[in-house]
Amino acid sequence: MSTLWIGIAVLTLAAIACVFWPLMRHQQLAKSEATQRQQQNIDIFRERLAELESERDVGTLAADEFATLKLELERNLLIDAEDTPARSAPLAKVGQAQLVTVTLLALMVPAAALGLYNHLGRANDLALALNTPAGQAAQGEPMSLEQAVAGLERELASNPDNAEGWYLLANTYMSMGNYAGGAEAFREVLRVLPQTSPQYASVMGQLAQALYFASEGEMTEAVRAQIDATLALNPDEIAALGLLGIAAFEQQEFAAAIEHWSRALAGAEGQAAESLRSGIERARAELEARGEAVPEIALAQPAEVRLRVAISDELADQAEPDQVVFVYARPVGGRMPLAAARYRVADLPIELVLDDSMAMMPQARLSLHDEVEVGARISLSGAPQASSGDLESRPLQVSTRQSEEAVTLVIDQVVQ
């Protein structure tokens, strides 16, 4: 184990010296927010499960419907807890220096998450993948990209059932432009990963991408078969739908491209969503230039709600600094939050932004609503459910497409 931690320390120092110094503050804040968000998702899961159990007990929800909804909640909570890899967008070309940086960062992720993923790999095997050859270690030289890949390949040769290791190798190959190697590594991931895993369909889609890039952008029979197999498993898988849209666009079938990309956009976030929107707009422009009918597509636009939360002077003495503050946005008239954040009374007053990244389920996001109801509550018990004695704000209806100006929530009421 000592060799493993020495290797991690060397890589960490090298990364900080090269790129991390100006970003350390941002990373610390992001880690704190991620921890808060995970705890919030757990609290929301418990609240929603309690609601489902209550509906089942009073007879308004059938037993089979209860089991289905409970399973869906558990799957989404598991995905958040395991911190699954984000769905990949089409790869952009970067220089060798950027490739080295990205790869070294990726190699540090398994080390940081060793406890969580212990069932997929062993510490000694991971140390073997990260160790620098003795000759260069004596000279104090950092590990090169090629040496890192070679070490990971050796680790996988001795531990071929390490799904996480194969996934890391696949993405490293893809970033290096070795698409054939990436495809083979993705196949190894699928060999090890259970088909019931929530990540299985996503890896299927990434394999389709790798095959497409390996064929130099040609929609071969193998690529088409992989896309069909992926969509049979998950009709809304983003990577597979994105490839169908690209193929349709290149064949100048712009209406079909819009259809595929619009379906993918429903579940996409971040840069992937922006790329899909850009593609849709290009396809629409092509149809307009030809004088052809442009399909009306209801696109889920980026959405966010800017808030300022404060407590009134009259109630300030009734709250303790360490008590939990829940800030949420939910459908107008609904109960399940679309986005939520967790703070402490000591943080007030605070300004924050609620957006799609805070959603618990892809089917429940801010961007699917033009207006939402926002509120803030100080929980005396620390639970997300409102209880007597809690302090809360008056609920406000706001637009998810609002201006840069923040909406103010004042916690000035006592829950009866």
Secondary-structure-based class equals: alpha+beta
Count of DSSP strands: 8
As for the CATH topology of the largest domain, it is Serine Threonine Protein Phosphatase 5, Tetratricopeptide repeat
The main pleated sheet reads as: 8 strands, mixed
Series of secondary-structure elements, N-terminal to C-terminal: HHHHHHHHHHHHHHEEEEEEEE
Shape: globular
Ranges where pLDDT stays below 50 over 5 or more residues in a row are 1-13, 15-26, 84-139
The radius of gyration computed from the alpha-carbon positions, rounded to a whole number of angstroms, is 24 Å
Task: Please identify which CATH superfamily of the largest domain we are dealing with.
Answer: Tetratricopeptide repeat domain
| Average pLDDT reading | 75
Tell me what the CATH architecture of the largest domain is. Alpha Horseshoe
Q: How many H/I helical runs?
A: 14
Number of domains: 2
Beta-strand content bin: 5-15%
Q: What would you note in describing this structure?
A:
The protein has 416 residues and is an alpha+beta fold. The protein has 2 domains: 2-290, Serine Threonine Protein Phosphatase 5, Tetratricopeptide repeat, CATH 1.25.40; 304-414. The chain has helices at 2-20, 24-57, 63-82, 96-112, 123-130, 134-139, 145-158, 163-176, 179-192, 200-214, 221-233, 238-250, 254-265, 270-290, and strands at 304-311, 324-331, 339-344, 350-355, 371-379, 391-393, 396-399, 407-414. The radius of gyration is 24 Å and the shape is globular.
